[in-house]
């Protein structure tokens, strides 16, 4: 189906449906509070993605979210109440960028984290995008690719670990603790991925 700003499709089996949405205005941006789900950031054929599942192992929600398939469009695929492992087995087959990969992705539920230590993309969208935009100056500078590339990975990593506050609004910017270096590295991998 063709939506206003995106393409929408779905697959149904028994009592579950998998919905897919591709386009510029993807509904998954973490503007709402995070639910108590489990997360895993993975690279799929060179592109960073987030897998998210219910905390309940016996059935429920599972999704894959790829914020940037290219420079403007994202992809979100989710179900509502099926067998999580069965749905993840479908997601394992996703290939991007004319991939020649012959085997499915390896997704281990034991490696998923909870909302106490979210992956880089989740932290970025839930915290950074409330004050920054990828397109224009808001409370803080725009986090567009040109700005990010001009600063470089070393500067941005130090910035993530530093304590900072905007002078104009007296708002404290998110600070990543050095013990959470995995999250910082995932965030940098996402921000510096070639598109």
Using brief descriptors, characterize the structure shown.
alpha+beta; Protein Transport Mog1p, Chain A; Cytochrome Bc1 Complex, Chain D, domain 2; 2 domains; 6-stranded antiparallel beta sheet; 4 helices; 22% helix; 24% strand
Main structural class: alpha+beta
Inertia-based shape = globular
Q: If classified by CATH, what would the architecture of the largest domain be?
A: 3-Layer(aba) Sandwich
Side by side, the strands of the main sheet go 1-2-6-5-4-3
Number of helices: 4
β-strand amount: 15-25%
| Quaternary structure classification | single chain
The first-level CATH class name of the largest domain = Alpha Beta
End-to-end separation in angstroms reads 26 Å
The low-pLDDT segments are none
How does the major sheet shape up? 6 strands, antiparallel
Radius of gyration: 17 Å
DSSP summary, beta strand count: 6
- How are helices and strands ordered from N to C? EEEEEEHHHH
How confident overall, as mean pLDDT? Answer: 83
The proportion of residues forming helix, as a percent range, comes to 10-25%
CATH names the topology of the largest domain as Protein Transport Mog1p, Chain A
Total domains:
2
């Amino acid at each position: 189906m063709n939506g206003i700003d995106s393409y929408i499709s779905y697959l149904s089996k028994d009592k579950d449906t998998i919905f897919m949405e591709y386009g510029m205005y993807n509904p998954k941006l973490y503007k709402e509070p995070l639910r108590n789900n489990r997360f895993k950031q993975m690279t799929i054929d060179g592109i960073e993605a987030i897998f998210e599942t219910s905390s309940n192992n016996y059935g429920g929600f599972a999704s894959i979210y790829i914020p940037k398939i290219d420079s403007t469009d994202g992809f979100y695929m989710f179900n509502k109440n099926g067998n999580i492992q069965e749905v993840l087995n479908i997601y394992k087959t996703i290939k991007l960028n004319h991939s020649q990969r012959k085997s499915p992705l390896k997704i281990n539920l034991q490696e998923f984290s909870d909302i106490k230590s979210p992956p880089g993309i989740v932290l970025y969208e839930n915290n950074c995008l409330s004050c920054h935009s990828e397109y224009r100056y808001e409370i803080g500078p725009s986090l567009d690719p040109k700005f990010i590339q001009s600063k470089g990975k070393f500067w941005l990593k130090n910035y993530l670990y530093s304590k900072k506050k905007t002078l104009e609004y007296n708002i404290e910017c998110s600070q990543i603790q050095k013990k959470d270096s995995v999250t910082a590295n995932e965030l940098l991998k996402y921000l510096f991925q070639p598109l």
